[in-house]
From TrEMBL:
Cellular compartments per GO CC: RQC complex
Amino acid composition bias (Basic and acidic residues), ranges on this chain: 10-23, 70-82
Xref: PANTHER family: NULP1-RELATED, RIBOSOME QUALITY CONTROL COMPLEX SUBUNIT TCF25
InterPro entries recorded: TCF25/Rqc1
Segments for region (Disordered): 1-142
Superkingdom in the source lineage: Eukaryota
Biased composition (Basic residues): 83-95
Lineage: Eukaryota, Metazoa, Ecdysozoa, Arthropoda, Hexapoda
Name this polypeptide is given: Transcription factor 25
Amino acid sequence: MSSRVLRKMGLQDDRDLPPVKDDASDDTETSSGGVNKKRHLNMYDLLNNGSMSESEVKEDDDHETTSSVNKKDENVSYDKENIRRKKKKKRKKSGKVLSSHTRSSEDNVEDEVERSVREVNKILGEVPDKGEDEDDEATSSRDMLHSTLFLKSILSVQHRNLNPNNELRKMFGRVVHQAELSKRKFRGRNHLKTTWLVTPKDNWPTVGKSGSTMKYLESKNGIMYFAFEHSPEYQQVQSQLYTAVSNMSSGNLVNIINNHPYHVDVLLQMTEWARLSEDLPVAAELTEQALYSLENSFHPMFSLSNGKCHIDYRLHENRALFLTLYRHLTFVGLRACYRTALEFCKLLLSLSPMDDPLAVVLCIDFYALRSSEYTWFIHFVNTFDPVRNLLQLPNIKFSYAVAKWQKGDVEAAHTLLQEALLMFPGVLIPLLEKCSIQADKRVNAHSFFTTYATETQPKSLSYLISMYVTRSYHVWKEVQLLPWLERNVQIVLDRVDAKDPIVKNMENLRATLYSAKPPLNIHRHLLLSDMSDTIAPPAEAVTNPILIMDPFPPPDGTSFYSRLSHGSMSRTAEENHSLFSTFFRSLNPVFQALSDER
């Protein structure tokens, strides 16, 4: 019997009937509705800790379904008595909420939908449903850092901010725009595929198959893990590269780059040679070409923007992406595109936020302050400090105070700056000297910022302070910051003279935190930065020749393949160690300093 006849007989109300559709469309809409509902609940479950979990929501839906079935007869009788009275009203309000019978039918289909969603979750890495027991357990700091929404809110990347031309257009406006239009007019259409990370040049060759591919490994806690693989042909070129570098054969290296223009490690080596020759435009373009090759190798599921795709630095094949990204953000920063450099810092940190193999936290504060991203930086420190102790680093401690000051939180900024000066007194004098400012008589006469700071400062801390002052002294040249710094320096000296117990506490904390040697990621950071000509890493950090395409490799590193030439390369490197050192000593003062320390 049709629905129209039932309505005429008064046996069924309009609100008890779903819209008239064919079976296929009905099934499709119900299924898609189930999936959308599932994702919607996942998002709000992560956004609001106080919200119901998915299991609780499902349990609540089941309860509604059961109650609606129990009240079926009662609802039908109620509808019979009131159908004539509400018939007009229902005509005016068509398209309202479906009845409990429709909800029950949807709930019956929801089990199949959930099974489908779980299968998709296994592939895409969505956050799995938590049971009641897991909801009651406290989440560890590492699990919190691996949370998909956590990473997305802090380290998500906006594609438009990865292009330095967009930032230059904001700074210089029509001039940059007209220059771009002129270039397009004369060069015609670009034959290379457009990517997010870099804009390919017209003189670049076609990519083709580089031999380096990315594969999907697994999904865990909502995080997708990927790794690069090298083809046998790529491995042979890699072996030729190591031989050419160990033999100091520039001719062989040029032949390799001519035959394999998109081999990433070869491009990285050529980038370093161009940089040491002070040919920065060529070095920057070679880095962009390497990054272009890497992006063309990305897996289809690998996303730059969502912050939940991780890569393990311990795997040798993965290191090229980290090194190339850091090189690129450094060159972008030299063009004063600080907002773009900050975006690449976020991207680089999102690949391995806990390990941070290139110590991005030592420079991310500089780019955040220079790009006036004070709110984001404060949020970043507040979120990361509980799991990574960021406020124990001198650069983060001082930059956090500056960000608070710039946002108008004056009282908090005063407290934070005084804590930074008490914790790291060795920063003040080098910072003032770098800013070409003469310290006042009281500061020079007081031992706290002079002899006391030098005597109680561990060597590893001196290493970090030198990097911070060398990189960030420009930040303190702002007119408003220097008087603010001077006032708080006087307050700190008053507290020292009053024998505030915090002075001794900070001294003990420094000795405890920085008693160990600096980790390898800090050495990599220095070597890849432009400060290696003024700051030399400790001699104990350099026990083997440094390869720029793999500086300070992790001791627990692994590889998908074993380099057949590795043993011979090591022997050749030992034989040519004096030649190797002499060559780099002539190009880079850091090697001269290391040799002197030996």
